[in-house]
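Hallway conversation turned thread

IA: we were arguing at lunch whether anyone had actually written out tRNA(Ile)-lysidine synthase end to end. Turns out nobody had. So, for the record, here is the sequence (444 residues) and right after it the structure tokens. Reply here if something looks off.
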Amino acid sequence: MNDTANLGTHLVEILRNYLDTQRIWVAYSGGLDSHVLLHAVAQLRPQLAEQELRAVHIHHGLHPQADYWAQHCQAVCQALAIPCEIIRVQVRRASRESLEANARTARYQAIAQLLSPEEVVLTAQHADDQAETVLLQLLRGAGVAGLAAMPPVTRLASGWLIRPLLNYTRVQLYAYAQQAQLQWIEDSSNTDIQFDRNFLRHQIIPRLQQRWPSVSYTLSRTARYQAEAHELVQSLAQIDWETCRTNHLTQLNLMALSALNLVRQRNVIRYWLSQCQCPIPSSAQLQQILQSCLPAKIDQQPVVCWPGVEIRRYRQLLFVMSPLPPQPMNSSQLTWLLPQPLALPLGQLTAVRIQGRGLALPSGTALQVRFRQGGEIFHWRGHQRVVKKLLQTLQLPPWQRPFIPLIYLNNTLVAIPQIGVQDELRAPAGQAGWEMQWQFPADY
């Protein structure tokens, strides 16, 4: 429990770890909490002589008084001789999505774009905010990562996000503001209890404080303990991931994964997906991965999807990828003029000049590109080959096979990228040919 009389000393101790940064930003909304933070940091300028102090105000445009708030922040910063950057953002509005969460996302994205490498931004979340976050996460059924709530220090793009007030309560910050005779903005939406956080703040936490006066500190301590537990969980996940990973970040070895117990399987899959920068699945989606992908037979093609992600199995590997585009229709046909690149439903087709092999055709030849319908035959290496079996031999994952371009000349299949060209059109030794290359994003 900290006394605001020592707030300056506390801030100096934190900022001492970032002496190399050229600029310190304060996220300034104009409300009580951020005004206290801005004022306290402003008093430290003699000790921050080598660092530039600036404020940033995010204009969400959601409140009728948003323009006035921006003007107020500019005036306060001018009085403190602190440059203030006003950034307007567009907040996504969508049904069944939290406007509050979308505003927060837009705010952090804007600040992230503002920060140069290793610059610091200070935000004013305090102990009561942390307590509210812990309760919200608990009511949502969060695990240790969620219950760790807001970390005191975290990366934000190439800079640092620091929350120096997490050990101070709203009451303490109010006392500081009164003593310093600060004037701040009161956002009327903060009293609207239709928002979950406001409901907790105005209806639930005051009743908890009547019985347990130190509830905010207690819940903040819980967050610290959960952060420590999460660090241990992540350490174990990294150990297991090193066992289960392959040479490709987007693949996981199923034999190694199956050797782990169920809890560690869930843990390492979450860790793997976070390393791939994918949205983390819900508990139900994670359970579906374990129940449908791990025990699948070799001829099955299980897939588990959630927004932005598909999980698939092939042989003894688990793949994570972006959602596939619609499969080409059986009747789809594209015209390709050598050697211009050709955009495909998945990736693109290119031709590279090469000596002694490839397709022996002049530049400008018009070819047709089709996709598998079934029953295709390819004359290659002295035999009539069934394309389906060739693709199986190539060990091309099943979900890629409908997208592989089959190259025709006058209704004859003359080339398949990654396999070869028809015997009669193969460039002989000493002559140049075209090597066909199918290029597609690595996460497929």
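OS: looked through it. The first strand starts at residue 23 and ends at 27.
IA: good, adding that to the notes. Residues 136 and 266 are 23 Å apart (CA to CA).
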